[in-house]
Amino acid sequence: MRVIVIGAGVVGAATAYFLARGEHEVTVLDRHGRPGQGASFGNAGQLSYSYTDTLADVGMLRRLPGMLLGRDRSMRIQLDLPLLPWGVQFLWRCTRRRADAATVQLLHLAARSANALESLLKDAPLDFGYRAAGKLMITGSGQTLAGLQRRADLKRQHGVRVDIIDAKDCLAIEPALEAWRSPILGAAYAQNDSAGDAESFTRSLCNYLITHGLARVITGTEVQSLVRHRGRIIGVQTPSGLLESDAVVICAGIGARQLVRGLPLCLPIYPLKGYSLTAAPGAHAPKVSLTDLDRRIVFASLAGRMRLAGLADCVGDDDSIDARRVTELMRLGSEVLPEAAHFDAAQPWAGLRPATPSGLPLVGGTRVPGLFLNVGHGALGWTLACGTAQQLAEQLPKRI
Question: What is the CATH number of the domain that holds 189?
Fold first, then answer.
């Protein structure tokens, strides 16, 4: 079967791989000059299989007034028309019952993704700085620690081990925390979580697909529109002409909304803008991935580089780098671990996370025959990419 995958980010590359392994004839299209240049380029780097907690929860309701008044440094909200319907759905999800249900669904999907990545790497030994060093989610708040304990109990019921540990154990696991400049009350420790460079993975996987004759990867090509005949998607229109297929899979992140305009589809996706800084490691560079839950920032060691990532700005489709937010991210990181990296010489990046109100990605067929989706992963695109790709590849033949 001829399948076009739109988007050569981490989700699109993984989708192409699993489709190709299903004996499909796969073509990947991307508007950038090379793979992995969109939301995959500078993401946090953490493969967060144990920490799939949704953004929409009860705690978000408590933070909302501060966000709207500009007092929450980790999140900035600029009200616009597309945000309103998405925001209403998001707030509706902010109950303990709904948040727990979504978190558990994501937990199972993340477990599938970990297994799918392991299977992929046995077949394609890619070089992307992969490290299974574990992850610490640190807090100085008793309320946050109690929430971590409750979620750890929930996850244990579903076969996922997350240990709640004290400050002494944190230091034993990650000695670099000796230089941590904020009180540590405790942490959640996920021993099996990993880290890796999503962009390097994406480029390496696309090269593997090309060199092994598994897929065509065409970069620098804009998909102008989906082509529909008698109600069915039969291909895509590009500047070079019509490219026909039996199925089209959209893996274009936030760009999916534009691609489905004119079709009887409404995708509940909104861009949450995130930032990262990538720099040479400093004197106290952590080896274990760290998440500061109080400042909502993460540190990840990626093949000789340190990445600091965070912030979630609701500013529409603007993916430009705001120098003020870069300074804010640097300030947040320097408050707790200033010698993690040489952040004064860091490479800044900003990207748009395609988020759904529930945090659950949109994976599978649509009401439009021949059209499939693998989008809406939010901040978990790297974590969930292989799992949703494998899921999509299994579903596609049943819907054609």
Answer: 3.50.50.60
Percent of the chain at pLDDT above 90?
93
Measured between alpha carbons, how far is 68 from 334 in angstroms, rounded to an integer? 25
How far is 359 from 329, CA to CA, in rounded Å? 23
The span from the CA of 359 to the CA of 371, in Å, is 22
Q: Per DSSP, which regions of the chain are E strands?
A: 2-6, 25-29, 46-47, 75-77, 135-139, 163-166, 186-190, 194-195, 215-218, 225-229, 232-238, 241-244, 247-250, 270-279, 289-292, 297-302, 305-314, 347-355, 362-365, 371-375
**Bridge partners, residue 163, by sequence:** 189
**Model pLDDT for residues 87-127, shown as the tens digit of each residue:** 999 999 999 999 999 999 999 999 999 999 999 999 999 99
Residues near 262 by beta carbon (within 8 Å), at least 6 away in sequence: none
- Spatial separation of the C-alpha atoms in residues 333 and 277, rounded to whole Å: 10
Tokens 């596609």: give the residue: 396
pLDDT of residue 66: 85
Please tell me the total count of domains within the chain: 1
pLDDT at position 87 is 95
For residues 60 and 328, give the distance between their C-alpha atoms in angstroms, rounded to a whole number. Answer: 21
Q: Token match 């309701």: residue?
A: 61
- Residue 102 structural domain: 2-399
pTM equals 0.97
**3-class SS of residue 58:** helix
H-state helical runs in 215-282: 256-259
